[in-house]
Amino acid sequence: MKILVAEEAGFCFGVKRALKLINEYLKNGNTIQTFGPLIHNIPVLNNLAAQGVHSVDSVRNIKKNKTLCIRTHGIPRHVEKYIQKKGISTLDATCPLVKKEQKIIEKLDKNKGRIVIVGDKDHPEIIAARSYARKVTIVNSLAEAEALPACAQMSVVAQTTLNSEFFKQVVAILLDKAEKIEIFNTICQATQDRQQAVKKLAPQVDAIIVIGSKISSNTKKLFHIAKEKNKNSLHIETCADLQKPAIMAKIAKYSSIGVTAGASTAPEELERVKNFLQNL
Ligand code: SF4
Question: Is residue 207 a contact partner of residue 230, using CB atoms and an 8 Å limit?
Answer without folding.
Answer: yes
